[in-house]
Amino acid sequence: MSTAIAEHPTSHASVTEDAGPLPQVAAVMAEFENVDDVMHAARTVRDAGFTRWDVHSPFPIHGIDGAMGIKMTVLPWLVLCGGLTGLLGGLALTWWTNASKIPTPFMANLQGYQFLISGKPVWSLAANIPVMFETTVLLSALTAVFGMLILNRLPMHYNPLFKSERFHRVTDDRFFVVIDSRDPKFNESEVTSMLQKLNPLSLEKVED
Amino acid sequence: MAHGHHQHHAAEKDLLQLSGKANGLATVLLIVGIVAVLASLGVSMSSGGLKRFYHAYMTGYAYVFSIAFGGLFMLLIHYLVRAGWSVAVRRIPEALAGTIPIMGLLAIPLVVCAWSGKGDVYPWAQAKPAHPTGSWVHTIEESTAVGPKSAHHGEAADSHSDDYHAKPAHSAAHGSHDDGHAAAPGAKPVSALTMGKMVWLNPAFWTGRIIFYFVFFSLVALYFIRKSRGQDTTGDHTVTERLNLAAAPLTLLTFVLFTFAAFDLFMSLDPDWYSTIFGIYYFAGSIDAMVATTIIIAAVLQRAGYLQHSISKEHYHDLGKWLFAFTFFWGYIAFSQYMLIWYANIPETTYWFAKRGATTNPQQMQLLGGWTVWTLALLFGRLLIPFAGLLSRHVKRNNASLIFWAVWILVFHAVDMVWVVMPEYELGFTFGLPEVASLLGLIGIFTGSVVWRLTRSPLRPVKDPRLPESLAFQNI
Hints:
The complex is a heterodimer of chains A (208) and B (476). Chain A is α+β, with helices and mostly antiparallel strands and 208 residues long. Chain A has two domains: 2-10 and 23-72 and 157-207, Alpha-Beta Plaits (2-Layer Sandwich), CATH 3.30.70; 75-151, no CATH class. Chain A is built from six helices and six strands. A four-stranded antiparallel beta sheet of chain A has the order 2-5-1-6. In chain A, helix 4 runs antiparallel to helix 5 (125-151). The relative contact order of chain A is 0.28. Chain B is mainly α. Chain B has helices spanning 2-12, 21-46, 49-80, 91-97, 100-106, 108-115, 136-143, 148-153, 157-161, 163-177, 192-197, 203-234, 237-265, 278-303, 313-344, 347-355, 362-390, 393-397, 399-421, 433-455, 467-471. Chain B is 72% helix and 0% strand. Chain B is globular and about 70 Å long. The longest helix of chain B is centred in the first third of the chain and has 32 residues, at 49-80. Chain B starts with a helix and ends in a 5-residue tail after the last helix. The A-B interface holds A 35-36, 39, 61-63, 65, 76, 80, 118-120, 126-127, 129-130 and B 1-4, 335, 338-339, 342-343, 345, 391-393, 472, 474, 476.
């Protein structure tokens, strides 16, 4: 981290310093001291209509979703689809392996095998339900974990914010509102003046 | 947090003491309940006699005892894990658990029945049961009227369909021929298996255990309730710490005893049959019904103007999660019980499901078709439909839809209790006015007791150290 900053000495120049024309601003970052201030700032940014921005804090803040206007995630629907796939997959698996003699294409040695267990019909739903249950849980859980990672664009190995010396305190006692320059409404001077009105501890342009 | 503080201040002005009208309501509910139970007795006498009434009463009793015990579980488990969110609603499970001593009193008719010597509810409680002779397997076949014969011999169905009706006389004859063991007239046959279990299942020992269970459950419940109420005046945080500590061993003991109570009270209705998971099966329904009751009581109190700012959508959401989780847990346990018995295919255990209509034998279907429908109603109404219905968080956060599913669960918990108890009345479908009247009667007595319990203290703990956390609680 420190080497990165050393390589880009202009990166932590604050707005108040006159550093001349800067190369490519990636984001504007406002620092706050407490939850109330950052919640207020989040509501202001939300109401201004920004879409590519984020709030960073040392711990989860209850109600931040509403303050940021974050819409409900689509993840539950993905998990439902994953679960149903697991359910039907488990059903198909148990049927094919235990109740059919259907061979696998291109694999002559692999085929369904009708195995008689304690005189039960080879196709007995009660015996298949534990398998279906497990595959449902498995695919639901995998969809939940990987869906969450993908929707959050994780793992993220690089973020311009890492270069900011101030941002290090986000894991300790500081709260940040960061507006991405790729936001369609992003205008450097307007964003700066809007955030300035929220009385941040500091305001910083983060460069890439 | 700002929001939390705001919530806390608003909640301080909440109405927390039930008005005097509640006492009147409790009295009315108690009287209506007692009248309904007596009506059940009256109707039973004209259709099936005392035996029918005892079974109807047992159904209602299984229902209300499960909810009362669920309240105790809620207290124990939330102290055990030091839960913060539930403090604002804790007085409701406290009121439910507070009726456990009354549940002990309501068990008196069952004890009387056990001592009557007729074996009306518990076949093992007969003074002189018909005692069949013969080989062990033969005896089992005699006493297990449904299923085992076809499982063993694969005989033509019509040859043993008559056996259902012929069985009592047939076996009683066996008994009277037996070496000097004179069965009482009209005595029910009891298998050698049950005869062996009479060391455990006899009126004296059984009554002793029932008294022990209820004294123990009552003491635990009253200990937690008294301490919690004492904290209302002192605000002493060491009370919470002591209850956290006490909850660990008491949870363990209470649950071991609850499994035994379920065996003694309900599984022993058929002393031949055994299922080690039965206690958990009853427990799963118990918790689900308790959560549903808590949701409904909270909603009723709020609509009556109480606890306006104390219980929020967030608390309902968490209660909804409990409702969803234990709906599924019930299904998981019910299926586990069914599947293991189905897979092992041992006649001594499969016939219990056959008696409940889980059969494809046409002759048996004729007699038991009502229970087949009932069993399928449980599968869909108790598990699959509410599972799908409660899956979404929007359903849990919407008060109207959550109440709908809470009522649904309470209705199907009653269906479940009927399914557990009533097939033991006689082979064939039995459900009618006595059961409905007994269910409503015991629900009346129970609800009256709960209302009376609620009037005795503020409707939420006022000085619990975790109260601010609970009032400020948010899911996201």
